[in-house]
Fold:
Amino acid sequence: MHAINYESPKTIAEAVKLLAAHGEKARPLSGGTDLIIQLRAGTRRPEFVVDVKQIPELHRISFSLQHGLHLGAAVSCIELHENADMRRYYPGLTEAAHLIGSLQIQSRASVGGNLCNGSPAGDATPALIALGAKARVVGPNGERIVPVETFITGPGRTVLQPGELLVEFLIDAPAKHSSDAYLRFIPRNEMDIAVVGVGGALTLDLDDDRVVDARIALGAVGPTPIFAAEASKSLIGKKFDAAAIENAARLATSVATPIDDMRGTAEYRRHIVGVLTSRVLTIAAERARHNEQR
Ligand SMILES: Cc1cc2nc3c(=O)[nH]c(=O)nc-3n(C[C@H](O)[C@H](O)[C@H](O)COP(=O)(O)OP(=O)(O)OC[C@H]3O[C@@H](n4cnc5c(N)ncnc54)[C@H](O)[C@@H]3O)c2cc1C
Structure:
């Protein structure tokens, strides 16, 4: 591994100053479960690593029904999974975080790092997109808010410019009778990369079992995670029944652009998208029916 300068700032301003001063040569470090491996393999060669784990704002989980969720970019997957509000109000995102690697990996890995790594197969990203999460990014030119579905621009690439730092995710509080779910398919029981991942969030009107709002997102079936906009829209206003689920699953499958590789053919992956979309919607709906908040 090449020699690296390591900095551990305590504030966002300090971190941005360091990142901006070194531009393309600098890289933020959160849990390091992607970055350290990339440094060892030589696939990323930053000269400056800016450890963001000492910055309090990147570590907070703050939730209220009035203001929704602020989820710090460096919150570890374990902290997320152990948080009562996360488990209760965002079960899909919580289960996605709890699927990442092993418990050892989850004690280091962050949801922010999962997104900023730019992998099309990151487990947290479809769950975030399904929830309509927005990323708060701070850089030398101030702050901007980026919808998570536009954050990854290609394999390993994101909208982040040199000097910019992902600070937190902003997610609305769930409406009454709404919930989310995430499922992935892997050939083994654990410690594998998703062959397909699907996140879904639904809001139901229980008076006539109609869908008030829906969002479906796909992972590992294109160069970036995919917000399945047409599939999501197809559910809104419809009765939540087998025909609506089947139609949404078909539309979700139609936007997947998977590749053939040793872990599955494109045809197989498309089939799995349909299966997981149906299951995710069914789980999210079941949870939504029991969510009496608000
Ligand atoms: C054994 C093993 C198993 C794994 N299993 C899974 C799995 O099942 N599912 C899965 O999705 N992933 C898996 N991963 C990959 C990895 O653990 C996750 O992507 C993890 O969420 C990355 O988070 P991190 O905090 O470790 O990121 P880091 O490695 O610290 O950073 C990742 C990237 O994001 C950038 N970055 C980090 N934080 C910020 C920030 N705040 N602002 C801007 N840029 C930032 C870094 O510069 C780097 O480019 C696995 C990894 C290993 C080693």
Q: What stands out?
A: The chain is about 35% helix and 25% strand. Residues 5-51 form a domain with the Uridine Diphospho-n-acetylenolpyruvylglucosamine Reductase; domain 2 fold (CATH 3.30.43.10). The pocket of flavin-adenine dinucleotide is lined by residues 27-35, 37, 52, 73, 99-101, 105, 108-110, 112-114, 116-117, 122-123, 160, 165-166, 191 (CB under 6 Å). The chain has a mean pLDDT of 95.
